[in-house]
Structures are given as structure tokens and as C-alpha cells.
What we know:
CATH architecture: 3-Layer(aba) Sandwich
Number of domains: 1
CATH superfamily: Glutaredoxin
Number of strands: 8
Shape: globular
Number of helices: 5
Strand content: 15-25%
Oligomer: single chain
Distance between the termini: 36 Å
CATH class: Alpha Beta
Amino acid sequence: MKKGFIYLALVLLSVSLVFSADTNKKLAAAKVKSLKGEIINTSTFNNNGKPIVINFWATWCKPCLEELNTINDLYAEWQEKTGVKFIAVSLDDSRSSKKVAPYIKAQGWAYEVYLDENADFKRAMGVNNPPHTFVLNSKGEIVWEHNGFAPGDEKKLFEVIKKVAETDKAE
């Protein structure tokens, strides 16, 4: 009971700190590739006024796979409650990116997935190590980011997504 209260207090504190900071850092513009081979500019990522989560991951990163598989189990519920769009950006290079589509298909991920084979988007966003997750508000501003994954982090992420969705509705 005490552990749960402390965890909840920490989540609420981190969410309030996120929303009290006025960084207004925007999503970087870079070119990524869809799984069909189309070149997409990240500045076009849009979710019609609802939150977007962008997660940098790789097939060789075990914490990344654990995080994305955990979130995939919750994603339909998250979308229903908040309208969130989840975008997974693979950092696999041109040699290992061939593993991305078969892995996604086998896991049944419902995410939009893009390839950042040259790491242009990764560099533009200041990502050092995957997994690295960003939450964007309706204006395309980065309001939260997190590096790494431990079981339970998905709960913190969902709290942030809900807060962003509520804030975006109010504007």
C-alpha cells in the first residue's frame, strides 16, 4: 500500500513537472522511410489535435522490444481513452532493417513504423540510446521524454498521455 502511494506520488510529481516546464521544443524535421519504402518528412507527423508518442527502438535492443510489446497489449485501450497515435522509429541500419517488418508482423503491432537507417532523425532529436520515447501535444511540441525501459514505465507513460489529451481538449 505504501509503495503504491509513493509510486503514485512520484508519477503525479513527474507529470506536473513536465507540464510546468515551458520548453516548447518542437519535433525535428528529418526524412525517414516507411516500411513500403516511401520517404516521409517527420514534420508531417500529425494526429488531428491528439497526443503523439514517438518511440526510437531497434530489433537488437531487448528493452525496446519488451517496451513495445508491453505497450502493444495496452494500445487499443489507450487509443480509445485518449486518441493517442504511437509511432515507432526503428534505428536499425540498412543491414539489419530487413528484420523490422517480419518482427512487427509476427508481434502484430498496430503502430505506425518508420525506418531511420541513416540515423538522421535520431541525431535531430538528440537520441543517444534506445529505447527513447517522446510525447507530443496537439501543437507538435515535445512535452515529455524518457530514455530506457523498466516494467511499470508504461503506466507512467499513460499518465502523461492522459494529461496531454486533457490539456489539448481544454485548448
